[in-house]
Write a structure and sequence with these properties.
It holds the Pfam family NAD_binding_8. Helices cover 29% and strands 23% of the residues. It is α/β, with parallel strands linked by helices.
Length: 486
């Protein structure tokens, strides 16, 4: 008889969510065994994968960082190397390094109600060797996008271009852009980061966009955070800065949704002040949708606007007809010449790492499931996942989910349960998409994702204060969450 290693919890992914989950398990449930499986050779997830120029957070690190670990750096909007160092320091400080198993990719997971456990198939990405683990709980912390492939539309004539084409997700270490003409296709967070970073050394950088995005400047350093840390100490100063920023994010989002026209005018006013006199703001910075229908793009200290003022960068709003030997031909008839084309065209969403799962021999179709409290799936026992906020800092929700998850496991241990399964009581409950978010990378796959309901506990909340009540203050028990024994 084959003997498999058995763990209480198996965490998939050693990025910001997986490291956070491991820390909560270590501190809240020290008697539970667990491992963190990471397909890549290093921890850090997004912050180790992406290497394009200027990569940074688009949220302040006082809220994007963990609640339990103060962000000590002076820069509130931080670069990827600083964030990566913070994550790895967190792992080391909490004794997680020994729990992370690199080059371990989960390729399948099967739940058995009879045995009350998952059987997880794992493949070594360095040797190809296949192994099997069993666990009581499977926790997906693998993020929401595909790591091995970014999204690039089919561009006519792409093969004709004689220069270099690069996607930000696969940035080559030896790409030299000094003195080169660059076209960056896209208008999202990645594009507005790359453009000013490359403009410092390039001959010129053009951001080519089909549709404008809301772009707002934000200070790199938080002066109030520095003062609070000086007068209240590191821990209390961080806690108060975090509260301030959470409240600020909520107010901005709430006012944007309630008064979209006024918010649009305010953003336009800020843009006008940052751009050269007479600049066509409405052509390049006036989106056809309301603020926060998609995420706002933050530019630290207005660096994108500064590059435009200095003449190092420009924005073109048009559609691509085809690539040419020397650049990009637009529908307007204009040709943008380039030595390098950067396709900052987005991500491919991949829910739960694309791992196929079965429950008692039946494959789970995600679109047939409903999200329970934004952390479990209807009909899928002992499975949890970490998905953060789209309208605020991602990690704010991760901490609350991990706390609730640990309380749930404690409740099961106290009462002798080993099975936990959410089930929708009302088969006629209306459902809607898992994420009410207009970003293209979500809309392309929304029909493949779980659904959410029209009432708790089947809502995927995007409100931190509401989640504090539901995930931190309320009981873990619920009439639609069923506990049992094997």
């Amino acid at each position: 008889m084959t003997t498999f290693e058995h763990l209480d919890v198996l965490i998939v992914g050693a990025g910001i969510s997986g490291i956070g989950a491991g820390r909560y398990l270590r501190t809240e449930l020290p008697g539970h065994s667990f491992a963190i499986l990471e397909a890549r050779a290093a921890s850090g997830g997004t912050w180790d994968l992406f290497r394009y120029p200027g990569i940074r957070s688009d949220s302040d690190l006082h809220t994007f960082g963990y609640e339990f670990k103060p962000w000590r750096d002076e820069e509130s909007i931080a670069s990827a190397p600083r964030i990566l160092a913070y994550l790895r320091e967190t792992a080391t400080e909490n004794g997680l390094d020994a729990h992370i198993r690199y080059h371990h990719r989960v390729v399948g997971a099967a739940w058995s109600t009879e045995r009350a456990r998952w059987t997880v198939d794992v493949q070594r990405t360095d040797t190809g060797e296949r192994t099997t683990l069993t666990c009581g709980w499977l926790f997906s912390a693998s993020g929401y996008y595909r790591y091995d492939e970014g999204f690039t539309p089919a561009f006519a004539g792409r093969e004709r271009f004689r220069g270099t084409i690069v996607h930000p997700q696969h940035w080559p270490d030896d790409l030299d852009h000094r003195g080169r003409r660059i076209v960056v296709i896209g208008s999202g967070a990645t594009a507005v980061t790359i453009v000013p970073a490359m403009a410092a050394d390039a001959a010129h950088v053009t951001m080519l966009q089909r549709t404008p995005t809301y772009v707002v400047p934000a200070p790199t350093k938080d002066a109030l955070a520095k003062a609070l840390r000086r007068y209240l100490g590191e821990q209390r100063g961080y806690a108060w800065t975090r509260r301030k920023n959470i409240t600020q994010q909520k107010i901005i989002w709430g006012l944007s949704k309630r008064y979209p026209t006024a918010t649009r005018k305010l953003i336009r006013w800020v843009n006008v002040r940052r751009l050269p006199p007479g600049y066509p703001v409405d052509e390049h910075f006036n989106p056809p949708y309301d603020p926060w229908d998609q995420r706002l793009c933050v530019v630290p200290d207005g660096d994108l606007f500064r590059s435009i003022r200095q003449g190092r960068a420009s924005v073109v709003t048009d559609r691509i007809l085809s690539f040419t030997e020397n650049g990009v031909l637009l529908e307007s008839g204009r040709e943008l010449e380039a030595d390098i084309i950067v396709t900052a065209t987005g991500l491919n969403v991949l829910a739960f790492g694309g791992v196929p799962i079965t429950v008692d021999g039946t494959p789970v179709r995600l679109s047939d499931t409903v999200a329970y409290k934004g952390m479990m799936l209807s009909g899928v026992p002992n499975f949890a996942y970490a998905i953060g906020y789209t309208n605020s800092s991602w990690t704010l929700k991760i901490g609350l989910l991990c706390e609730h998850f640990c309380r749930m496991l404690h409740h099961m241990g106290t009462h002798g349960y080993d099975i936990c399964r959410p089930e929708v009581a009302d088969p006629h409950m209306p459902t809607r998409p898992f994420l009410d978010f207009g970003a293209g990378y979500i809309q392309r796959v929304v029909d493949q994702l779980p659904r959410q309901g029209d009432r708790m506990p089947w809502l995927t909340s995007m409100d931190y204060q509401s989640d504090v009540r539901v995930l931190r203050a309320d009981a873990v028990t619920d009439p639609e969450l069923h506990f049992g024994r094997a």
